[in-house]
């Protein structure tokens, strides 16, 4: 569900941004608005970003090799990290540069109503894309808040598209604000102010994504809820206690679980193997993403003090 939902949200954003980018560039060529130029570059970057997310999904499905025995699931994290860098460089940095230039050398807008019409239509299209991302994200976020979903999700595409679409929508509003005030007041400086607001917004979103994707690339373990379910699932049958456990997501849909467990003393080897298999089955039932499980039987060396 997560992968399919992520793909649907990416495609919705891809088609919306591609059409919006063309319209914005036409608007910039007609009006000379820096806000329109910043938004045009932003939409081109977003369109490229969605292409990278789709590429990451495709390459992550490659079969494991001897050199990469755990597969290529982290490709999705890598390309999501590149998306965050592009959002910062092509989106935020360019918009701030253009804003500074516009504020230092303000120029009157030509046919500003063209820009207003394009921005209004773009807001409608971007709202559709944003709504799609919200609908698909709700299917997997559960009871978590939106911020918790962005911070805790191990599937990168939905948080990336969600933040990108939010940034695009608010960026359009800021562009409309800048162009509108420039028309109302007759002062083209407001166009530069709107562009600066876009750049700052994209910078905040990009830095947030860079931090989150870097954390996923390095390797994150199971979520607190998943850890609780795994701890409970391991103990059962003749497994007396969970001694030690480590988890790590090696891809958005594949969790590695390695643990030491204490079994009843004196069990025959065949029974030990059977108990380990049963414990692995319980863990997979509790957390389906736990596909790679390594359980090592050990002695329970804990002592009870009076």
UniProtKB/TrEMBL annotation:
One matching Pfam family: Cation_efflux
Keyword field: Membrane, Transmembrane, Transmembrane helix, Transport
Principal cellular location given in the protein's record: membrane
Residues in Cation efflux protein transmembrane domain copies: 10-217
Subcellular location per the Swiss-Prot or TrEMBL entry: Membrane
Regions crossing the membrane: 9-30, 77-97, 109-130, 160-184, 190-211
Membrane topology: Multi-pass membrane protein
Signal sequence, start to end: none
Record-linked PANTHER family: HUEL-CATION TRANSPORTER, PROTON-COUPLED ZINC ANTIPORTER SLC30A9, MITOCHONDRIAL
Protein name (database record): Cation diffusion facilitator family transporter
